[in-house]
Write a structure and sequence with these properties.
Order of helices and strands: EHEHEHEHEHHEHEEHEHEHEEH
Number of strands: 12
Distance between the termini: 28 Å
Shape: elongated
Helix content: 25-40%
Structural class: alpha/beta
Strand order of the largest sheet: 8-7-6-9-10-11-12
Radius of gyration: 21 Å
Strand content: 15-25%
Length: 316
């Protein structure tokens, strides 16, 4: 029997075609949904490889349900959805998709900065609804991006790419990171200093026990009233209840969000009632070229592992 690869969503045919030539490939058949956790525990029992997405909770129960599992490939740069301790105990290889999504995610970060500062979603709605009656001196006025101060929390590959884009906008770039970096045209700042001085606070740090909830009531109170908070990292880093209160009370100007504590975000979530929130459905890496490259990277890692070759992009 061919080794079995289980995929938790329905992937494009071209992404799995080469794997199908050598392996039995099973996919969750429903469009636009992940396999439910209880179904995954059942489906994975015969799997040698698991191809998952960031929406899948790959916990100890899932891992222990698959005695033949050799590799978990995660279609994301993050891997907080996977129990790495359980994987290590079983000597299961875990891989992600670093680097290839850097530029697309940096583009989306800048798009959110522009959208929140210039109130693009609000302005578009006035056109669509017929509320736009006339040009007025202060109508739909926003905040400057050019020449503003950008504060980046988490200066990895994506942070560096955002900083490069900021140079074209003549921005003053601050960053805060666990370790200081030797970088041109950016300045290290202590955490509170960055919050106090930045016109845009961009979160690009991984979700870890240390970063969970790191932006809460205290941190939001340090920000300028004219500041925008941008989160394209992970939802759990921001206390959403505190963010809602800060936006309602106008302690900060706006928020641009691509990630949330609960995904998909419920349609009755309080943040969605606010005009100064730009909310996107976790599309940081969502360009055709980037997603194709991510899937190709995962597929190569799976075949390398199952064929006994060296595996790139190992997390563990």
């Amino acid at each position: 029997m061919k080794p079995m690869i289980y995929i938790t969503q329905k992937f494009p045919e071209e992404a799995v075609k080469e794997l199908q030539a050598s392996y039995e490939v099973r996919m969750w058949p429903e469009e636009d949904t992940n396999v439910p956790h209880d179904k995954l525990v059942e489906e994975i029992k015969e799997a040698t490889a698991l191809w998952a997405t960031l929406s899948d909770k790959i916990d100890r129960e899932v891992i222990e349900a698959a005695p033949n599992l050799k590799i978990i490939a995660n279609l994301a740069v993050g891997y907080n959805n996977i129990d790495l301790d359980a994987a290590r105990e079983r000597k299961i290889t875990v891989v992600n998709t670093p680097e290839v999504l850097t530029e697309a995610t940096a583009d989306l970060t800048f798009a959110l900065m522009l959208a929140t500062a210039r109130r693009l979603n609000e302005a578009e709605q006035t056109v669509r609804s017929g509320e736009w009656k006339s040009w007025t001196p202060m109508g739909m006025t926003g905040q400057n991006v050019f020449g503003a101060t950008l504060g980046i929390i988490g200066m990895g590959r994506i942070g560096e790419a955002v900083a490069r884009r900021a140079q074209g906008f003549n921005m003053n770039v601050l960053y805060h990171n666990r370790t200081r970096r030797s970088l041109e045209d950016v300045k290290y700042a202590e955490f509170d200093e960055l919050l106090q001085q930045s016109d845009f606070v961009v979160i690009l740090t991984p979700l870890t026990p240390e970063t969970r909830g790191m932006i809460g009531e205290r941190e939001l109170s340090l920000m300028k009233e004219s500041a925008c908070l941008i989160n394209v990292a992970r939802g759990g880093i921001v206390d959403e209840a505190a963010l809602y209160e800060a936006l309602v009370s106008k302690k900060i100007w706006a928020a641009g969000l691509d990630v949330y504590e609960q995904e998909p975000l419920p349609t009755d979530h309080p943040l969605l009632t606010l005009p100064n929130v730009t909310a996107l459905p976790h599309i940081g890496s969502a360009t055709i070229q980037t997603r194709q490259a991510m899937m190709a990277m995962n597929a190569e890692a799976i075949s390398s592992c199952l064929e006994g070759r060296s595996v790139k992009n190992r997390v563990c």
